[in-house]
Structures are given as C-alpha cells and as structure tokens.
Design brief:
single chain, mainly alpha, 3 helices
Length: 98
C-alpha cells in the first residue's frame, strides 16, 4: 500500500509566533486602572477605590517584564496609590473605622 500523505504539503520546520502586543496592552490597562481608581479615591475619599488601586498596582507589577520596565510609571502609580491610602486613613477629617 502506498502512503496517502502528500510530501509536497509537509512542513518540516514550523515556527510558533507569539503575539506580545496583547500582553503589553494588558499591562497598560492595569496601569490605567491604577491611576483611575487612585484619582477617584483621592477626590471622592472612597477607600474601596483606593484599595482597588493598590490591587491594580500590584497586578501591574506582577505582570511586568524586565524589558518593559518604565521607572517613572512604576514610581508614580505606586506613590499615587499609597498617597491616597495615607490621605484616607491619616489625613484631616479621616474616619479610621468607616
């Protein structure tokens, strides 16, 4: 019996290509969410938004790759999140238990 496969259609070297654009956009979304929730929490004094900003900031740092490190963006997102928490809990007219 002969082989039913066609040798002309056989691909010997197959390279798998990974699309990295989606992961980079996802990182930008985490950073954007961090800034949006931090500003919302600071302006309206919503502690839930500030804690969500911290979680988004940690997710941004956890998904960060070494080649995509932007020190200015990292420092600004972390400092904004932590500054909002400090202002909410220790600022003037802060209610610690609400």
């Amino acid at each position: 019996m002969s082989d039913p496969r066609k040798e002309s259609l056989v691909v010997s070297n197959f390279e798998m290509r990974i699309n990295t654009a989606d992961s980079k956009e996802e990182l930008e979304y985490w950073s954007l969410f961090c800034f949006v929730f931090a500003f919302t929490g600071i302006i309206f004094k919503y502690k839930v938004c500030l804690w969500t900003s911290v979680v988004c900031c940690v997710a941004y740092l956890a998904n960060l790759k070494s080649k995509d490190i932007g020190a200015r963006q990292i420092v600004s997102s972390v400092s904004l999140s932590l500054m909002g928490l400090v202002m909410a809990y220790f600022g003037p007219n802060a209610n610690l238990f609400v």
